[in-house]
Design goal:
The protein is an alpha+beta fold. The protein has three domains: 401 residues, Glycosyltransferase (Alpha/alpha barrel); 93 residues, Immunoglobulin-like, CATH 2.60.40; 111 residues, no CATH class. 31% of the residues lie in helices and 18% in strands. The strands form four sheets. Strands 3, 16, 17, 18, 19, 20, 21, 22, 23 and 24 form a ten-stranded antiparallel sheet that branches. The relative contact order is 0.10.
Length: 650
């Protein structure tokens, strides 16, 4: 039975990427949160000033936009540029621009959406079908390659772009195009149509959210049909196996995520959407079970997911090699999408913890500081510095020690763009008489707590560089409300200060439940002292190693910071000395062996106690992982071997 739905709204001033009809928490709209300073405000401003234009430039240059012109003109041919899914990058850019217009009101973002829409709309067929790679002259027929063709995947991103437009501007030509496309999908793949699914989940998310935004039950029902059809061998088998498509086990029966990481996580996000809209506890529990298993056994320290390059996939339990870590940026975005939906549905703070880890150590790592080059994969160990591909070249491979201006498969830049444009919408949630701060940044919040109650806050912080979060009350109702502040799982020893009162708070949430007074300050002190982290003993690839974290940030060693004449392979960390803050990063005491050019005849030797001979003590500078390779291509390691006397693991 369909759950009772409240209005999900199309208020152009209150845009939100995810608006469940039911749930424990209400996500705040773009008009309720404004970033004012700090780490995320800088990234968001760079995204708006540089990344949008950069993405459109490359799509124009490579002919991805002209593909729509050719369909409209009837001049399609076998020489179509771009992969089959290049349409989706245009749609993700439009989504990002729509959210940006809702956030800032910048007329240039609105004009860009209109300009791109004017090229897309004429390419739509009369029955609503819209794709530049299939179904036209000199092209394969529609839906002839559901495994790899990405037709429905592209449509899903079109629908998400329309949701962004609808929730920030209102109904326009883009929304009308999306309605016709969604109607076509329902007519083609409904109960009386093709009983099939797309090889890359995404249409399910688009249908669910557009259904919410338009209160269109038909779209929600089609999303449910697609989720329930998955896992029954609908797609053709391939050498990588049906697990690659998540078509081997039904969603409700799977115990963990498997196969292509982005596909698996997009499907999980859609399953949460469907579970919430239909009040389906068993489906929601299935995704929660999968999340718990994957986080405990298949997730990197950075929050990255996907340990296999060959198929961009999840590996087996404990298969987490740092040098072969794929950790695709898009998988980081998708992980946030799943965790956010689970948090809204359950209120479980663990999901917000993983969101923070992934935001800071995967998503923030991808864009270069100028917003015009990106990482596709995010390994935790770069053995060879690699070569900078240059500002004017397409990188054919996503495996390099340097960010690339554009990729042959450029899904990540547009995914980063749409995520950064909406970052502040993940910062806090509201409930009846309560507000929860989930992510910390310099920002202003004015949130509706129900029954005409508004809580206005100003948050001042240098987090994650500093652990002090100051919350100033600007407006408050004349009655008790609950202000909840997330205390991260690593923050043992955190302290909450209310005027003259100070008390320790445990990881989870610190709650101030009383009448708040305009002008008062509440201070949360989070301990961001550098600390060593050790891997589970079952992660063989990094057994005997340690990593360094400082607050929510993972740190790494780069070859450019090593003493002259040494390489990362020569470094061993002495963990009898605690890491400490220093100029330019975190300092650890280490042992550094001399670099040698001698070619071994055999890469193994007799076991020996202690550090390598001739090793010298040295201070090693570590930098935040999200900043690596900003000074050019370099070797890099997150996990560093520990001295022999301290190679204990839990």
């Amino acid at each position: 039975m369909t759950a009772h739905r409240t209005s999900t709204g199309t208020d152009p001033t209150g845009g939100r990427p995810v608006v469940p009809s039911l749930g424990r928490q209400r996500p705040l709209g773009l008009n309720e949160v404004q970033l004012t300073s700090g780490f995320w405000a800088t990234l968001q401003a760079t995204n708006a000033a540089a990344t949008f234009e950069h993405c459109e430039h490359w799509m124009e240059r490579l002919g991805w936009l002209a593909n729509f012109d050719r369909v409209a003109a009837g001049t399609t041919g076998p020489d179509r540029p771009g992969w089959s899914f290049s349409d989706s990058e245009v749609y993700k850019l439009i989504e990002a621009l729509s959210w940006e217009f809702g956030r800032s009101g910048n007329p240039a973002a609105d004009e860009a959406v209109r300009r791109l829409t004017a090229r897309i709309a004429p390419a739509q067929d009369p029955d609503g079908y819209l794709n530049t790679c299939y179904g036209h002259a000199h092209q394969q027929p529609r839906y002839s390659d559901l495994e790899m063709g990405h037709e429905l995947y592209c449509t899903g991103h079109l629908l998400q772009a329309a949701v962004a437009r609808l929730r920030t501007t209102g109904e326009d030509e883009l929304v009308r195009v999306a309605r016709r496309a969604a109607d076509h999908v329902c007519e083609t793949f409904g109960d009386d149509g093709l009983r099939a699914v797309c090889g890359h989940p995404e249409i399910e998310i688009g249908l669910a959210e557009l259904g919410r935004a338009l209160c269109e039950e038909r779209y929600l029902e089609q999303a449910r049909l697609f989720v329930d059809r998955r896992g029954h061998g609908t797609l053709r088998d391939i050498p990588l196996g049906r697990a690659y498509f998540q078509d081997d086990v039904p969603v409700r029966k799977a115990d963990t995520w498997r196969g292509h990481a982005v596909r698996a996580l997009y499907l999980a996000a859609a399953a949460v959407d469907v579970a919430v809209e239909y009040d389906d506890a068993s489906l929601l529990d299935a995704v929660r079970r999968q999340w718990a298993h994957a986080v405990a056994r298949q997730t990197y320290l950075t929050g990255g997911m996907g340990s296999r390059h060959q198929d961009e996939a999840f590996g087996a339990d404990w298969e987490l090699p740092p040098d072969r870590a794929y950790c695709e940026t898009c998988a980081g975005v998708a992980s946030v999408m799943v965790s956010w939906r689970l948090y809204l549905a359950t209120g479980d703070i663990r999901y917000a913890d993983l969101i923070e880890r992934t935001f800071l150590n995967v998503i923030a790592t991808s864009p270069r500081s100028d917003g015009r080059a990106f990482f596709y994969a995010n390994p935790l160990h770069q053995r060879v510095a690699g070569n900078w591909p240059g500002e004017d070249r397409v990188s054919l491979r996503a495996e390099s020690g340097a960010r690339a201006a554009w990729f042959d498969v450029s899904c990540c830049p547009t995914n980063v763009a749409r995520t950064l444009a909406t970052w502040h919408s993940y910062a806090a949630t509201a409930g009846e008489g309560e507000l929860t701060l989930l992510q910390y940044a310099g920002m202003r919040i004015s949130a509706d707590l129900g029954c005409g109650r508004t809580l206005g806050l100003e948050v001042a912080t240098s987090y994650p560089d500093d652990g002090l979060v100051v919350v100033r009350v600007r407006q408050a109702p004349a009655e008790a409300v609950a202000l909840r502040l997330r205390v991260p799982s690593w923050a043992h020893g955190a302290m909450l200060e209310e005027g003259e009162r100070r008390h320790d708070v445990a990881p989870g949430t610190a709650v101030v439940d009383r009448e708040l007074v305009p002008g008062e300050e509440i201070r949360l002190h989070l301990p961001v002292t550098p600390r060593f982290t050790r891997p589970d003993r079952r992660v063989d690839a990094v057994r005997g190693c340690v990593a360094v974290e400082r607050g929510p940030l993972v740190y790494c060693a780069e070859s450019v910071d090593l003493p002259p004449g040494t390489r990362l392979d020569d470094v061993t960390v002495d963990t009898s000395h605690a890491p400490m803050d220093g100029d330019g990063g975190v300092l650890v005491r280490g042992l550094v062996g001399p670099e040698t050019d001698a070619e071994p005849s055999w890469p193994y030797a007799a076991a020996a106690d202690g550090a390598p001979g001739c090793a010298e003590a040295a201070e090693i500078v570590l930098v935040p992982y999200h900043r690596w390779a900003e000074r050019g291509p370099s070797e890099m390691r997150v996990w560093l071997p520990a001295t022999a006397r301290d190679r204990t693991t839990r």
